[in-house]
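User: As part of a screening pipeline, I want to sanity-check one entry by hand. Below is the sequence and the SMILES for zinc ion. Please return the complex as structure tokens so I can compare it with the automated output.
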Amino acid sequence: MIRLFDSHAHLGAKEFALDYDKVVAQSLAAGVMHIANCSDSLESFTPTLDIKAKYPNVCLSCLGIHPEFVGMGPKYIDRAIKEMVKNIDKIDAIGEVGLDYHYTQSLRQRAEERDLFTKMCELAKKYSKPLIVHSRDADEDTFAILKKSGVEKVDLHCYSGNTALAKEYLASGMDVRFGVGGIITFKTGTKSREVASQLPLDRIMLETDSPSLAPNPLRGTRNEPKNLIYIVKVLSDLRFEDLDKVASQTYDSAERFYGIGD
Ligand SMILES: [Zn+2]
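Assistant: Here is the complex for your manual check:
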């Protein structure tokens, strides 16, 4: 049977509060053997850790503050960092963190985002954890901060850059991964499909970003890890590669990234 690894989901989100047990069971039945759950806010730390405690062989936990929450202020961020450090032995990565300039026009707020992202990078470096990065309309600053930070393992979740930037990352010395998800199944996903067809397979990790970004033909519904099958099918078609090969190489890529398996 096909084995898949969902390298980025949010089963700790409120959308799954009532039925994540069922969601995990259905994912396993669909061949999704591992789910890396990311948090975005202090409030999501506890459910993310609880789900890993309940499913230690399936679910991973990643803690981090998403740039969207930068407005919560310095006290909130300090509290979050303390919680992350307190739980550092229980977490598999720092994430999801990064820069999102899409809705942030204020230069001051963009600077605050960079500050927060730098702090998250410092934690990853200090505790030798992989880093799960969200970057939107901020390619240059994201790359500069990552390079300066010296963080080794970097996942560019839902990678939206072009092939030239991907090559820069590959040449940068970082152990980088490119997250490929539902966007490659969208009509509007031409650029993402082109990039995904050219990246080395051992640097790709599949992801759903559940509950967001449900792939076609399920677009608009609550996304779940079991839907990874739609993404791997499109990826193998556009690369003219065997489905089993794409599944197993991206699975191995994620295992190596998260430091699990043999
Ligand atoms: Zn996410």
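Points to compare against the pipeline: The chain has one domain: 4-258. The first helix runs from residue 20 to 29.
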